[in-house]
Every structure is written in structure tokens, then in C-alpha cells.
Design a protein that fits this description.
Elements lengths: L17 E6 L2 E6 L4 H7 L6 E2 L6 E2 L12 E7 L2 E7 L9 E4 L14 H4 L8 H5 L6 H13 L15 E12 L3 H11 L5 E4 L16 E2 L2 E2 H13 L4 E4 L2 E7 L3 E7 L14 E13 L3 E3 L12 E3 H9 L8 E6 L3 H11 L3 E7 L7 H8 L4 E3 L1 E8 L3 E8 L6 E4 L2 E5 L2 E3 L2 H5 L3 E5 L4 E6 L4 E3 L9 H18 L12 E3 L23 E3 L4 E2 H9 L2
Parallel strand pairs: 1-7, 8-9, 8-15, 9-12, 15-28, 17-24, 18-19, 18-24, 19-20
Antiparallel strand pairs: 1-2, 3-4, 5-6, 5-7, 10-11, 10-29, 13-14, 14-15, 16-25, 21-22, 22-23, 26-27, 30-31
Length: 537
């Protein structure tokens, strides 16, 4: 058995393929196909690190590269140690050795947590106010101490024994992102005969189709359609498909830097195999299909281990077959979190309650949650989480004030909607625009020959996403020199509801409180810090 929280029959990987690994010297079992994060969660491990400034206990927040908390050191031997690896993207292999960071003497008891008690001394911008005098102390005292305290992991102290490779490539259409939008765009372009490169940072293509259970395309489940489409693209002579490949730089004249993780997922990579490969790609046209990132809710102690994004919990359940808890609470201002509650309930996991900040939302997912016997509370907010090394409860209050109620839980799933991932668009020198209706930034003015499609363009709904992406892929191919298109656009038979959520802090993070309600987990920035920074200009 690969963990007490592994659900038999759930997920997409065979439990017969066991992989042993260790975390902080403790041995565990996972299965091939796991990430380190999913394997830890399958074994009931939520505490994975300590925060940067306050050394607060931190757990797994997400299921992708946006993870701010679960940063670990991966060690293969004395010379091959890599700090600050995100557990959510590190694929599990037999013999993997991971260590937590930024704690002493242990993860569960860290003396650095005294910083949390002394946090009033570390208010926003305190560095610039405190270390000004005496001037001579900066070089001899302040700077050395600050540099020693900064950072999380420890840099390797021996020469790197791995080797790396690089390649130059040219293509007509470069598609960045392998979800439904990226695959549809790549299909449309590839079917015209132009040279296409499709890259995605995950090991499996599909994007949000990895966790969506209600999506159907061309008569197949969404994820099954994605795998069939990728197999079809891989068989084309004019297409190069790159998984485990991250686009890290978008430069002038459609020059894009990609890094491919070649052997980090292998138990015993051969010495002749490169660890990573740098791709330097020049494309005539670029299609950006980088998706969206789920927003978290801001409330007191929202960083406790066991509190995570609702979409991440769905990924761990539907893709990896792992339940993130046994008594789960949901806090949302968005319909997509209801789907997480429904999936967990159907898998036999108790959903203690759904707390919805909105007043009177309606829709099929809300009706389905109620039909399954899940308690739904409208117009209420979670004002704080209980527990320390693991969340133990959520305290709920009407958002306009009133009596409090504490609900015991061992996990809280949260969703405040989805923010378009405009990072690469911005790096291309494009200018974002604020959509006042949906309260989010979307691509605005383009500086290069590229187009954004799908969720990263602010497009909601699978059908609209596939239509937009397929048209964009065909147009990109035509602009790159293709003459005719001969393909058939994928047909979306069913999709899920993705209504917009909200931005901002919940009442529990209001101006009259001194609680720690985190906006930025990675840098320990709270709502109070932001208010103070604005006040001080």
C-alpha cells in the first residue's frame, strides 16, 4: 500500500508500481507517476517546510509550478544536491531522497519560529528603517547577518557532476502550454503542414483536464482526448512535442528560451544522458496557452498546513488518487470549488461544509452539492483557521458580522477564482489591460507576433477556449506561410462551470485586525503589510 490517503480505484496510475522514497530521513512508499507532493499527501504528510521570514509551518498549497511553500532539497549523492525544488513538480522515482529546508533543529520544532512571536519588529519595510545607523555597521555587521539569514536552501559546495545540452530550433508556430487550448492550437497549425513545436512543463499533457471530470471532447473524457491528440501530434513529421519543458524567457523577434528536464525523473540516469536541455527557439508565430492560476482566499492563519487550493485538491484526487484529508472544509467565492467538494464527497471523503462569500449564487454545481448532503453556507466568511502544524478547524462568521461558529476539519480547500497567467505575455513586452467586469488583468497590447488563447486570455469555458485556440492556431499557421487547412475542429460535448470569483481580502483580514492573513506565502507578506506599505507610500 502506498499510503493511508490513497483511494483504491481513483487516479490514473497503477498502484502495482511502487516507488520508495525518503523525506527528512523517514521512509515512505509512493507509486510511479506520483510527484513528491502527491506521494507525501498519500502518506498523510502535510508539513513540508518553514516560511521565509517568520519560520511558520507550511504545507503544500498547489499542484504545479506556482507552489510557494513546498520547496525541498533533492539529493542524489554528496555532489548532486539541488535546493529549492518544488515538490509539486518533482516526479517521484525509486530511491528519491528529499530534505526540508529553512529549519533547525527539525521541521516540527524550529527555533527560528521565534521570529513569528517577534513579528511586530519585522513590519513592512523594516529593513530600510532599521539598518540605517550607525553607517559603519552596514558592511561589518548588518550585511553579513542579513545575507546569512536570507534564502531557503543551501547551495551545493561541490562541482556539478551532471552535464547539460543545448539545441537551436526553428519553427513556424510555437505553442506554449499543453492544456486543451494549447493542444487545439497545435492541432490546427499542424494539420496545415507547417513546422510546429508544442511545449508544456508537466510530465503529462492536459492542463486542467487532468482534474476535470465533467469535460468531454470528441466523445471522449477530456484527459483521454488530450492523450489521444498528443499521440497524434507526436506521430506527425512536422511536429515536435516537448513535455517537462518550461518556457523561461520570451525575447525579441519571437526568440524563446525553453529548458527541458531530461533525467530528473529517472531513478538511475545514465552518465551519457544530459540532466537538462536548453532549447533556443526562433518562431515565426507564437501561441501562448499558459492557462490560469487559482487565487487563494485571504483570512487569518490561511497558511496552515492542510490548507490548499481547491483545484490542487481535485488534481491530487482525480489524477493521483490521493485524498488531501478525511474531513474537509471548503471556502470559496467561485463555482469551481464546488466541483472539488463534489468529487471528494463521491470518493467517500466527508465534506464538513462549504462556506461561500457570495450572497445568493445559483447553478447546477451548487444544486448537486446540496443533493449529495453537503452543508452550504452563503454570505459567510472563514475568519481564521485553527491548528499549528496542521489545520484543525475553520471559524465561520457572516461576512457582515455576527456570531462565530467553529467547524472541525483536517483540510481547507479555497478558491477566489482564476487569474490569467500573463507572465510570458508580459515578458514579450506586451501590455496587460484590466478587465473591470471580471476584475483581472488580461493581455492587452501586443509587442510581438504572438497571440494568447484560453484561460491566459481570460476566456472562460472549455467550448469557448477550444474554439478560440483552434482558430488562433489555424491563423498562426496561415500567417507563417501555410496555404490550406484540412483539419476538423475538436467538438466539446460537455464542460464544467467556471464562473468568476472575487478579488481582495475576507472580513477576517480587515483593517481593524492584527492577524496574519497571507497574501504572498513565499515572502511572508500579509494583508496588514500591504495596508501599511500603501499608507507609508
Amino acid at each position: 500500500m502506498s499510503g493511508a490517503f490513497r483511494i483504491p480505484g481513483a487516479g490514473r496510475f497503477s498502484q502495482a508500481k511502487t516507488a520508495r522514497f525518503s523525506f527528512d530521513g523517514q521512509s515512505y512508499a509512493g507509486i510511479e507517476g506520483d510527484t513528491l507532493a502527491s506521494a507525501l499527501l498519500a502518506n498523510g504528510v502535510h508539513l513540508v517546510g518553514r516560511s521565509f521570514k517568520y519560520h511558520r509551518p507550511r504545507g503544500i498549497l498547489s499542484a504545479g509550478a506556482e507552489e510557494p511553500n513546498a520547496l525541498v532539497e533533492i539529493k542524489r549523492d554528496a555532489a548532486r544536491k539541488t535546493p529549492n525544488v518544488r515538490a509539486t513538480v518533482q516526479e517521484l522515482y525509486d530511491g528519491l531522497d528529499a530534505q526540508s529546508q529553512n529549519r533547525w533543529p527539525s521541521l516540527s520544532f524550529d527555533v527560528g519560529a521565534v521570529n513569528d512571536i517577534a513579528s511586530p519588529l519585522f513590519s513592512a519595510g523594516f529593513y530600510y528603517k532599521t539598518f540605517m545607523w550607525p553607517k559603519a555597521a552596514w558592511k561589518s555587521l548588518y550585511e553579513p547577518k542579513i545575507r546569512a539569514a536570507a534564502g531557503l536552501g543551501v547551495s551545493p559546495d561541490q562541482p556539478d557532476s551532471d552535464h547539460y545540452s543545448s539545441r537551436y530550433a526553428h519553427c513556424d508556430v510555437l505553442v506554449l502550454g499543453g492544456g486543451a487550448a494549447g493542444i487545439a492550437a497545435a492541432l490546427a497549425a499542424a494539420e496545415t503542414g507547417v513546422r510546429v513545436i508544442l511545449a508544456d512543463e508537466q510530465a503529462e499533457f492536459g492542463g486542467s483536464l487532468r482534474f476535470e471530470t465533467g469535460a468531454k471532447i470528441d466523445g471522449q473524457g477530456g484527459f483521454a482526448w488530450a492523450q489521444a491528440a498528443i499521440a497524434r501530434l507526436s506521430a506527425m513529421d512536422n511536429v515536435r512535442v516537448l513535455s517537462r519543458t518550461t518556457a523561461f524567457g520570451y525575447y525579441a523577434q519571437n526568440f524563446v528560451g525553453l529548458v527541458e528536464r531530461v533525467s530528473d525523473h529517472l531513478s538511475a540516469p545514465g552518465h551519457d544522458l544530459a540532466r537538462e536541455r536548453l532549447w533556443q527557439v526562433r518562431a515565426k508565430r507564437v501561441v501562448l496557452a499558459s492557462g490560469a492560476i487559482e487565487r487563494h482566499m485571504v483570512f487569518a492563519d490561511n497558511d496552515r498546513p492542510g490548507i490548499m487550493l481547491a483545484g490542487a485538491a481535485r488534481t491530487y484526487l482525480n489524477h493521483y488518487g490521493v485524498a488531501v484529508g478525511k474531513n474537509v472544509g471548503v471556502y470559496t467565492a467561485n463555482d469551481s470549488a464546488y466541483a472539488a467538494a463534489i468529487d471528494l464527497k463521491k470518493a467517500g471523503i466527508n465534506v464538513a461544509a462549504i462556506v461561500d462569500l457570495r450572497d445568493n449564487p445559483t447553478g447546477p454545481v451548487i444544486d448537486e452539492a446540496r443533493a449529495l448532503g453537503v452543508e452550504v453556507n452563503f454570505g459567510r466568511a472563514v475568519i481564521r483557521a485553527g491548528g499549528k502544524l496542521r489545520v484543525s478547524s475553520m471559524t465561520v462568521q457572516p461576512k457582515n458580522g455576527g456570531g462565530e461558529r467553529t467547524i472541525p476539519v483536517d483540510a481547507i480547500l479555497m478558491s477566489a477564482g482564476w487569474t490569467p497567467s500573463v507572465h510570458l505575455f508580459s515578458q514579450s513586452r506586451g501590455k496587460v489591460a484590466f478587465n473591470d467586469e471580471t476584475k483581472r488583468f488580461v493581455p492587452g497590447t501586443y509587442a510581438q507576433d504572438c497571440v494568447s488563447v484560453g484561460a491566459c486570455n481570460g476566456t472562460d469555458g472549455l467550448s469557448a477556449t477550444v474554439d478560440e485556440a483552434y482558430a488562433a492556431g489555424a491563423k498562426a499557421a496561415k500567417d507563417a506561410g501555410a496555404k490550406t487547412a484540412k483539419g476538423t475542429k475538436p467538438k466539446v460535448d460537455a464542460s464544467e462551470s467556471w464562473s468568476r470569483g472575487m478579488l481582495g481580502a475576507a472580513p477576517g483580514a480587515g483593517p481593524d485586525t492584527t492577524v496574519k492573513a497571507f497574501v504572498d506565502f513565499q515572502n511572508d507578506v500579509t494583508a496588514k503589510d500591504i495596508r501599511q506599505a500603501v499608507q507609508e507610500g
